Amino acid sequence: MTAKVERLVNLTVALLEARAPMSLGEIRRRTGYYRTADPASGRRMFERDKDDLRRLGVPVETRTLVHGEEQGYLVPRDAYELPDVDLTGEEVAALALAVRVTGAEGTPLALAKLAARAPDPAELSAAAATRVELEPEAVEDVAELVLQRVPVRFRYRTADGTTGSRTVDAYGVVQRRAAWYLVGRDHDRDAVRAFRLDRMQDRPEPVGPPGAFELPSDLDVAAAVRGPEFAGVTVELAVSPYATWTIELRGGRDTGRRTDDGWPIWELDGLHPVRDRSWVLGLGADVEVLAPPELRRSVVEALRTVAATAGTDAP
To answer: Cα(31)–Cα(166) distance, rounded to whole angstroms?
Structure first.
């Protein structure tokens, strides 16, 4: 853990444990930080840390102290802590399986506490352990630079395989669909762009001083990776009994109609005809796209391509 990250964590803990707003002097005594020969320098360091915590989502509040005009600081627990988690037995079992799959260690006690709160206690033991090795993410490589507002440079491989150098004002890091992205202003394009961390060909290096840029007032890092809003389309699928559960999980509804082969016809709302096509293809022969015609043609062409690549005849 870097010195600054450790300092931010300890500052958060101190502000959470405070029964009343603390002055900067009291924060110095409790944490041991911000004690500098020049008091103004210590104050500036504290203000930077306070602003960094707020950018990270920690609700640091500033209040006038009762006796005097000095400012006090604290983090209200009700604004910081998550609400109680109440899970069903099935949800606890699913969480336990997910923990085993990811190989997380030291979690049996936490899972036991969750299971004890479930209305229908779940059995957490498994016949065999399952483990998947996951590559560590490169978030730590850019987190400190994001906090310092430092421009970074790195080599980046785009989705089409081309590689080039990028210089970016590092605004923030966000996760979407199991992938981490650096969001910032691309100097070459003079626009906000998102870059997948697993496509960076080397470690991002700083190319400017701390505080080299200001964050836009309307910044929304999550919007940078969502892409343009799309209402989606309603899709009709003929579904085999083996795929019914996954259609239900996506919010599908049984229309009550059947195909000539007896398969039930389901409807799904809000599917993206491009982004969700891979999900439909992943269901293989257990679904048939009936509508809309454009998606049906696209899926059929993709299946024929796969079949031709495999050297088999497409049905």
So the answer is: 39
